[in-house]
Fold each of these.
Amino acid sequence: MSGTQAAAGRYLADSAGEHQGLAVVLFTVFVSVTLAITAWAGRRRSSSEEFFAGGRMFSPMENGFAIAGDYMSAASFLGISGLIALFGYDGLLYSVGFLVAWLVVLMLVAELVRNCGRYTLADVLSARMRQRPVRVAAGTSSVVVSVLYLVAQMVGAGSLVGLLIGGQGTAARTWAVIGVGALMVFYVSFGGMRATTWIQIVKTVLLISGTVMLTVMVLVRFHGNVDGLLHAAAAGSGHGDAFLAPGLKYGGSWSSRLDFISLGLALVLGTAGLPHILSRFYTVPTARSARRSVVWAIGLIGAFYLMTIVLGFGAAAVVGSDTVRSSNAAGNTAVPLLAEALGGGSGSTWGTVLFAVVGAVAFATILAVVAGITLASSASVAHDLYTALRRPAARHGRRDPAADAMEQDEVRVARFAAVGIGAVAIALSLLAQDQNIAFLVGLAFAVAASANLPALLYSLFWRRFTTRGSVWAIYGGLVPALVLVVLSPVVSGRPDALFPGVDFHLFPLENPGLVSIPLGFLAGWIGTVLSPEPADPGRYAETEVRSLTGAGAV
Amino acid sequence: MDKDDGGDPLALRVDDPWRDAGGAGLWVPEQEVPAVPPAGAAQAGAAGERGSVFLEVQDSAAFQEVRGRYRGFVFPAAAAFVAWYLLYVVLATTAPGLMGRQVAGEVNVAMAAGLAQFATTFLLTWAYVRHARLRRDRAALDLRWTLATRTGQERVR
């Protein structure tokens, strides 16, 4: 991506001045609103329930908007429509995977997790298992997933600023990454879950409004004739009808085909293991409202991805794939360029306004997503790692002064953890600034699917699952996923790799999911079979009864 | 939603976990589970005691019914949509010829299959929610009541 940054900057440089002013104004308005929300939410008493779960009294609609806000990252808004603009149908495959994943969440995870846990994934596992090892394992994998996802988003923020305001050097991108990091830490440490949720809601409304507006403009331009739009897109892409069929991006070698199947598997199974998605179910009072929030989220996310398909084909038709590619080789500027063209082209008033609006919406999107992830990972650090390593195991539901003091302690640790995670993410993002970010998102999903999902599903549905099984399932998915990435062509052996100079790639695929997800399930099974002590039937009965009835849910 | 800030009071009622119980008229305890005074259960909060209550409920016909209905819907549905999605991805990557065949106008098999994925996702969401609402929610709520009185662990808001 780095080589094209300069070209993109040059391409946009002529109109950069006008874009910059308006985009900065719009973005400042968004930041002011979110800071006001944070200040308002920060006035409340900081119990851990308030900080990690926002008081648990959000309505399903509000939580559904917030879930959609946590999920629809700039990678979807700019990345997927950009991929469609460049590769046609192969870009669409992503959006299908991202949506179908929600059925796993809806049917197997949302309600049961809401009923069994308090704040994090580890709560669900440790209800049945020995607290300490399981909390450490689940906390570690949650933090790893979150940091990978954070770095991808923040590198994206840097590139976006570079592209939108035409910053040629690295200075603008560096400051964008630092600014985004500082803001997200501020939101999370001062506003907790309540502020983060409202920021997601505002962002979702902005993102959906912007997407609806552009989609309507594309459809109006083609007089509502979808066939005409597809025809023009095929013509504008330079590929003809091949543009509308799969194969342009993933149809080459067998390893690239397998790579896509691996990515598809990771996308569809990973969502249910993402810590910042799981923690959202605790902001509503009951499992039934958790279910209804997911229904809202599926409606919003499905509509959004359908519209990104229109935008992607619209960009190919109106702007042309070659123009998009010359602006950014990954296609990330397809939607801003489409907005500009729909408004009347470069230099026109409406073109400038729409370009700035899209830029500001994309930036707001990134900011909200990173806040959600930072909150979830600081909850994992404070509620799982810190509790397990520093404190004796705490029983749920006890109300005594010591427990209250511990809650305060947890919240304080979480606030500092947010600062620490923010610092780590900023540092890693600055190091990875010139790297391709797409693989980081795919990797975060693959790690979530390999490490978190097997343990979660076994724990909810398998009577014989043991502590050793859960620890093995988590590390047995996490370690292979990370090792396979290090051995993949993303890290070495290719000109665009992290270390292009050396070649130690032994694994042909970019995405480890196809291997590491089955390994996670296998490790959990082997660990259970080899356990010294059998599973406690009473505790499984408690988990199963609670998960399906909601008895004793907080 | 934040009630202090002028939220709609109706919204709270919609999410009231006990709301469904009202429609059924007077609540009748489960016959399978012998009634135990809640105070006594709350005192005997030891893990073993609680575990045995949960084991008892797990064995009860009422709970088996709820679990059977849940698994009976969710497991086949999950197997079906995962298989359908994997079939779609594998076909898209390995059979571009088939997927590129025109159906109507510019719409080809691949495009139709992709839109069908969206459609089945929406359809299954609707079917699951309907099944849960009609076949599972009330029975689960009854069990929750039973357990609340027996273990005394339900927290009062």
Amino acid sequence: MKLPVKMTINGQMYSHEVEPRLLLVHYIRETVGLTGTHVGCDTSQCGACTILMGGQAVKACNFFAVQCDGAKITTIEGLAKNGELHPIQQGFWEKHGLQCGFCTPGMILAAHQMLERYPKPSEEQIRHQLEGNLCRCTGYHNIVKAIQWAAEQMAGKK
Amino acid sequence: MATATIERLIGKSIKRREDPRFITGRGTYVDDVKLPGTTHAVFVRSPHAHARIKKIDTTAAAKHPGVVAIFTGKDMTGVNSLPCGWLLPDLKVPPHMPLASDAARYVGDPVAVVIAETEDAALDAADKVKVTWDVLPAVSATDKADARTSAQIHEVAPSNVAFKWQIGDAGAVDTAFRNAARVVKKKIVNQRLVANPMEPRACLARYDAATGDLTLWVTSQNPHVHRLLMAAFVLGIPEQKVRVIAPDVGGAFGSKIFLYNEETICSWATRQIKRPVRWTSTRREAFQTDAHGRDHVTEAEMGFAADGKIVGLRVKTIANMGAYLSTFAPAVPTYLYATLLNGVYTIPAIHAHVTGVFTNTTPVDAYRGAGRPEAAYLLERMIEAGAAALKMDTVEIRRKNFIPKFDNGFQTQVALNYDSGNYAAAFDKLLRMLDYRKARSDQEAARKQGRFLGIGFSTYIEACSIAPSKVVGSLGAQAGLYESGKVRVHPTGGVTVYTGSHSHGQGHETTFSQLVADELGIPMEQIEIVHGDTGAIPFGMGTYGSRSASVGGTALLMSLNKIKEKGKKIAAHLLEASPGDIEYANGQFQVKGFPGKAVPFGQVALTAYVPHKYPEGLEPGLEETSFYDPSNFCFPFGAHACVVEVDRDTGQVKVLRYLAVDDVGNVMNPMIVDGMVHGGIAQGVGQALLEGAVYDKDGQLVTGSLMDYCMPRADNLPVLKVDMTKTASPSNPLGIKGCGEAGAIAAPVAVINAITDAIGSEDLAMPATAQTVWQALQKANNRREAA
């Protein structure tokens, strides 16, 4: 039995009939075809599938697609506007905040919410707020720097 | 026309060219590749560590809607065992079939594959496959594998012994120990780890029935090795009909070197069903089936003279191979471990004996550092024990034993010939960064307030850019260890580079572009780096053992030199000069000393493809290929320091400071090198404090998910302070040594030495969790009270 589901992803409306057990992350990757959202685990520990739902950073593996009927979602593909990188994306590039790039979309979107909550985060706050996201390449050192860089840029813009 | 000197890019922190696609979610990892008509594979795996397979009933599963095919080991006729690529003398090599059909030998051993229209259908059907098991006794503990009472795992390996191997001079150690002032003895356990790259393994196999071509997308560090082993050794299909593509790969750390069951089975199955077959590992499957790392149990003895000089080292190691021999498993605890036991110290006599054993656990193979972290851990724990026994300062005892500076060759007691080293310099720089005296006085002041601070050091040496072929061949490698590099200059002057190295986070698209841009004097935008596709690149050996820049980079350099030599002939003809009078500088071929009399690179490129005015007898085209086989390993080294605070009531360890001085030889991109050092340190701190794969006595993996296996998170680590010394390697023309594994080698023991320094206890097992440290604290307290 399939159920209808509609949601807005990166400003575009999608409408599908899906299996009730289909996870949101698989809906995004397989049904909609946006593969920037990654799957790194099966216990919601790694955060590679982090997206923004109604502006909140959530792990897309923690929802069934049918639970998200009517949701407004931003994935990593929707963060840059008119070809201009978001300051967090720019920060990850400037500060070498990624190596293999697999955790990066989730890290960037987790940082997005972090900087909304704490526009001037301390190093300790950044590290604490990244608790939900695993990276195996960078030792987090340059991820912290990337987020600090982005925070400065965003403060300058305001 | 005089050209301004073009700024050199090598040695600069150039931002990475690959990043824009990753930060916008447009990377292409294996699981992102979609093909029409793809089927989904789900594996039926053994829930038992050791069990005979009595019967596999697929009747009910086959009737499940959406199922395309179900295969068991019995269906895979004509398929051979997964090979072991490193053969030690008298090595016992048991068969390792892609699907086990006689018995399962570890939890996760695949016994059947269900292929269906959707992943859900495959999962549901896999649940309906009924396997009748005859559960057998199992053995998981490394030091119990060869016990008389332990379960026998393979017929070919009595007492579960895979090999017994030794190196060094046992007699010399005996003599040294007889004359030693002190001999310290320790049992040292290097626990089992799981690599856990964030991208799980995945594959997509497509057979084209019309052409007979097989294309395999797979998470691989070495696609040519995958192709060779799978096509020639296991499936028996012509290598030229197989194309292996490793696109963006999300981290690997060794675990994606090896040929695994799953991609082999999917590649076989697509030929049966004539449709693409896809499999992506879940994290749970990754814990059960990605080759694990480390898992040594060692008895070590180190002898000292009264002045603190090391006189000898005796090592007896049992190395757990797991249930089968993974692709390069036997090399890790032998040639990548025992040959590094000379460390950075003058040790006049060394003997090491290594026993490799089979257990009912996931196969063990190379994981970041591979053997070298085990060697560094052992040496640096033993030297600490020596310092304690002789009541010497840990800095002083290290200084006393460093091999003095050398530029070209130091013969160790355990076969290797180090390239160049200046070990004291790196250590001294580290001490200055740390401000050692102040750190000790801070420690004392804290102690007066009842706070337990500890300072730990480690030094290490690494054998990198693993090669040359002749040497590794004589040691049992069934492969050569060169690298290939092809440079194709297009008629418009654009350049495509094909490298046998593979990037899974290392940033080759940037660093190799820097090298090409410098050599040819053209902008990076004119250069494209292609890797990871056997259909495009010459046979290459791939990326592991910190070899890409030194071996792969040199192969490129050779091709670039050939391009320049040919270009000189073309330019000489155009300039009506002799080729010997032409030099290449700043992106143009010019008459020596006359930069005004020149032809730019682009014009030479065009002439090579439109050879109207062209030297007699010279082939058209501008494309060169080179294979570089180095004359020796490279030997990076360094010294790390760690300051911890231990909570005396809970045993919780907090890393307050972490400092590193690494010498990786010449550096192409400092930003990338620092980044790799950071990552390695995090994995090393993870090993010291958090990580450990644990099996119960029946062989169940109790740390089978990220909920149970603790990976380092951002708040487990402090700001890392990393710096370098630079001692060029004479082993390759770039002077590069390699940087990929440094942190993972040096960090575990720096952290453990810091904790033992804080709590005044000699014995501490990794991972040093709060509970472990608290227990060690109690023991130390009890000892003090008793004394």
